[in-house]
Write a structure and sequence with these properties.
Layout: H1 3-17, H2 24-40, H3 45-59, H4 62-65, H5 70-86, E1 101-107, H6 113-126, E2 131-136, H7 141-154, E3 158-159, H8 166-179, E4 184-189, H9 197-210, E5 214-220, H10 225-238, E6 242-246, H11 255-264, E7 268-272, E8 280-282, H12 285-292, H13 298-308, H14 311-322, H15 328-340, H16 344-349, H17 365-376, H18 380-384, H19 391-401, H20 405-426, H21 430-436
Parallel strand pairs: 1-4, 1-5, 2-3, 2-4, 5-6, 6-7
Antiparallel strand pairs: 7-8
Helix pairs in contact: 1-2, 1-5, 2-3, 3-5, 5-12, 6-7, 8-9, 10-11, 15-17, 17-19, 19-20
Length: 441
């Protein structure tokens, strides 16, 4: 997410950090590189121009020029201005005083509306809401089938009627929600390959019929500048309440995220960060700005961890660590919990400074899969007592996991090293162990 933009901005910041003293001239030169990075990321040129002007006004002030750490201060200014560009603060969704809350999903075909509808329903369900999905894309039978399948997976009801008009489906879904005591209706509408009059009239008719409390415009982040132009066209007709950026995990540029809010003056409310049905995140401008500038996003990382790891299990694991009783069975459980947090590259991207790792230091996602396959190829007894793993057992495990014996040996060696360290901590030698460790500055 935003890799290209982050790397180019970091290159521009290096020059700023290297300046002993800042002058209007070298500030202008560095900001020129920042502007070039934004344009390369497919940020709207008017948005990029205004952003640089706003940064420059603050950067050439006396406070910056006389600062002892001028480079860091300018980076903070850029961060603050980027937060403003992205919307300053999180904007929550509307909620009806008299349920159900009606949410209308609109966007072009291929933007991910149907999947987003299911993700949003899943997100709201986790928050204690009781959503109902409504399949109002009558032109694409596969969309109705898809929504029914996703609803079944999530155990969320889906309202369908393959003989009615889209407007009637939306109206009947609201009535059905009241009967089923469902507090939220999410209406998935039809998309087209481009903005056309017929589609816009239909969506306007649905809006007039059900009077939604929230209209969300779904846009594929990877379309860059086109996403902004489409959002503008939709907004002129629908006056939507917020934007959802899908496929942001595959967008290394970030142009749509940085432009769309400024152009349509509507907040980004959610971002899609993966294909799984739980891969939907609320949009926080300050957190996204930190990610773009390579400062990480510890708050979101902690929230993801809290969702996956229970406090009770953490205490149990701590006790096992202390007594050096951590087994491959425990290791496998933790590995699976970690994978639930999303692709490891995304998780690592939330850690400050990870953007400065060498380009070839990519996270080996397949390496985790190999480790999981090796452990799964062990018997329960072998996971609990790895000391019994002789040569023949190791060959069997390698064969069963599709790996080499050397891979099995390497994992066992790493596990033994970890257990030895646990024993050192468990014997009350923590302080001495920490003193013996040499951490690079």
């Amino acid at each position: 997410m935003f890799e290209n933009l982050t790397q180019k901005l970091d290159a521009a910041f290096k020059k700023l950090r290297g300046q002993g003293k800042l002058t209007p001239q070298n500030i202008e030169e560095s900001l020129r590189e920042v502007r070039r990075a934004l344009l390369d990321a497919d940020v709207n040129y008017k948005v990029a121009k205004q952003f640089i002007e706003d940064v420059q006004k603050r950067a050439i002030g006396r406070e910056v020029l006389s600062s002892l750490v001028p480079g860091q201060l300018i980076i903070k200014i850029i961060h603050d201005e980027m937060v403003k560009l992205l919307g300053e603060s999180r904007t929550d969704m509307a909620e009806a005083q008299n349920p159900p809350t009606v949410i209308l999903i609109a966007g072009l075909q291929g933007s991910g509306k149907t999947t987003l509808s299911a993700k949003l329903a899943n997100y709201l369900k986790a928050k204690g809401r009781m959503p109902l999905l409504a399949a109002a894309d009558i032109y694409r039978p596969a969309a109705i089938d898809q929504l029914e399948i996703l609803g079944k997976q999530l155990e969320i009801p889906v309202y369908t009627d393959r003989t009615a008009s889209a407007v009637k489906i939306a109206e009947d879904a609201v009535v059905a929600a009241r009967k089923m005591i469902r507090d939220t209706v999410i209406i998935d509408t039809a998309g087209r390959m481009h903005v056309d009059e017929e589609m816009m009239r239909e969506v306007e008719s649905i809006r007039a019929a059900v009077k939604p409390h929230e209209i969300l415009f779904v846009v594929d982040a990877m379309t860059g500048q086109d996403a902004v132009n489409t959002a503008k066209a939709f907004h002129e007709r629908l006056n939507f309440d917020g934007v959802v950026l899908t496929k942001l995990d595959g967008d290394s540029r970030g142009g749509a995220a940085l432009s769309i809010r400024s152009v349509v003056q509507k907040p980004i409310k959610f971002i899609g960060v993966g294909e799984k049905l739980d891969a939907l995140e609320p949009f926080y401008p300050d957190r996204i700005a930190s990610r773009i500038l390579g400062m990480g996003d510890i708050v979101t990382l902690v929230e993801k961890a809290q969702q996956q790891f229970s406090e009770e299990k953490a205490v149990e694991l701590e006790e096992k660590f202390r007594k050096a009783q951590f087994t491959f069975e425990d290791f496998l459980d933790q590995l699976r919990e970690l994978k639930k947090m999303g692709p490891l590259s995304q998780v690592m991207g939330m850690i400050p400074g990870m953007n400065r790792l060498p380009a070839n230091a990519a996270v080996d996602e397949k390496g985790l899969d190999r480790i999981e396959a090796i452990i799964q190829s062990m018997t329960k007894e072998e996971r609990l007592r790895p000391s019994i793993l002789n040569g023949s057992r190791r060959r069997r495990i390698a064969s069963g996991s599709g790996t080499a014996v050397q891979d099995v040996n390497r994992l066992l060696k790493q596990f033994e090293d970890m257990q030895r360290m646990m024993k050192r901590f468990g014997k009350g030698n923590m302080r001495r162990t920490l003193r013996s460790m040499q951490f690079p500055a």
